[in-house]
């Protein structure tokens, strides 16, 4: 713009290495210069403010619109980049009118303008920005937010327009820069930027705010409000952002500020280990980048940040970054030599996510740091192996995890191999053999359906051919494995070896069956039962699995025998008795598991015992009384269940049983008789004060005579026992006092004087006080009647 009103347009047309420059110039017919210029690209129009009038000209040839449409009486104006109309064929303009304290809103089309709204303000507006239905205004003394639809205003900050020019910019959707950051609700969600005192202009290039003063252009981050860059720049008098470009002008030229690409900025921050700043910058720029491109870029930044944290041994932060960035876990595995299988086709990301060749370089050879890194790697691999991260590389992950466990002698090695895994046999077998993990190698073979090789490895361990202390009971493991093995030939191949190692447990199979090279499943079960009986009853091993397995075998054998011919009834009863004894005496089996196995088995006595183990005494007694109808068994239950417990526990059991008997029901008469028998036979097990109120009033004293007699006799006996105990205690105390007096003997002499009359004692009878003082008997008596006499101490 020159001194007279005119527009000059410059366009460059590239052709090879030459440039053709086309200059367009258009006079608008005003005497004053152009003061503001805005581009409405959607309409292919320029909006030119000159001499308080906004004119429309064609963007390409600078020709005025044929209709001559313009907006008059404008001081300054702003385009609404987030219009509320939604009409794609117009742009919304909000301008400060020459009419005092007035804001006007227009819709501008290609060849016409339309006034929509006029808003009055309390003070003269000096600057305006607009977003949607909200105006951000700099008045004479303060900044405000105004909803032009509802007329509601929100005061923001005070300032003095005479000391500095106002700064009003739209930051984004429903957020403005009005000296400080503020939302349309009047809330500042960002810390204030510490402006220079001489700021004359500001522009926004997300995520930065650029400020212009007399000597510098200063760049601030909107994300952390920190100063990021300072550029020397003198004689600047205008700074504006135009559709994503920041332009600064002097009296001699116009300059464009070009920001570094976001990727370059984040990589520079990561290179200087400023991880948090890089993440904040990348996340803040999300709205300005296409979604798919941002996701790819942001995942890579997260992965790079994760490796930076990993190198600093900040493992929790690294793990979260790896998970958020969906890191291909093989990038992490590849830092350790030989962990990836030889068949893996993995290659590291390019460009690389980090600068380290391996863990040795990362830790600079520090073995302690390297061990920490490997422990983290084990933990992380174990977490991700069952997640979506492992899709497509489960073999690499599980094989690497197996190698780490084996090298570190980790307890989880066996857990990995006995559950579902994808360890590659060739690589894993060689590694386990290298680290002498032969038992684990056997598990690996078994998982890969090589049971013969697995058993042979375990047999070599027991025979001492190879050394492996992973398990203390490899022989018992082999026995258990063969018992449940479905390969008949494999079982008989090692049957003799097993029997030789445990002659006291297993019985020899019939010779004719050995010659047939087959076995009877019943013989196997019988051998297993005898083996478990030896462990549980004879050796008294306190292992839950032994007790549970023995109980299950008893149960299955008992059910089979009960379902067989009647000739085996006695044997079935014997097995059932064994089961009951085991359930009563052992506290190691899995009670809930056995209760589930007993469902539908019609074994009420066993069910009652198990409920008793769970402390469900009333439920157990209910089964015995109402389902089994065995009152004697209910009384026996109370006795064995309270064995070794305190008397109150036994009383509670018997009173619970009595309460069940006394409840009305179909068999009330039978239960009443059982209740009377219970009271009369176990009178000493009840608290009469609690029992008597429970009894029906129709019962005669004669029926309860044995109970009442027993109760009275018990009370008298208890009282007498208490009296005897009290007498014995008093006697013991007297003996103790006498022995104490004997130890502190007193010798009388002429030198021992009475502490009252100061004369020696001439008689063997005297009074001694605890402090050792001696008195004549008559002096002690006179002292009792003369309170004013000197006190030698409390009398013994």
Automatic annotation (TrEMBL):
Residues 1-246 form the CNH domain. It holds the Pfam family Vps39_1. InterPro entries: Clathrin_H-chain/VPS_repeat, CNH_dom, Vam6/VPS39/TRAP1, VPS39/TGF_beta_rcpt-assoc_1, VPS39/TGFA1_Znf. Keywords: Cytoplasm, Protein transport, Transport. It is found in: Cytoplasm. It comes from the Eukaryota. CHCR repeats lie at residues 499-666. GO terms for cellular component: cytoplasm; endomembrane system; membrane. PANTHER family: CNH DOMAIN CONTAINING, TRANSFORMING GROWTH FACTOR-BETA RECEPTOR-ASSOCIATED PROTEIN 1. One of its GO terms (biological process) is endosomal vesicle fusion. This is CNH domain-containing protein.
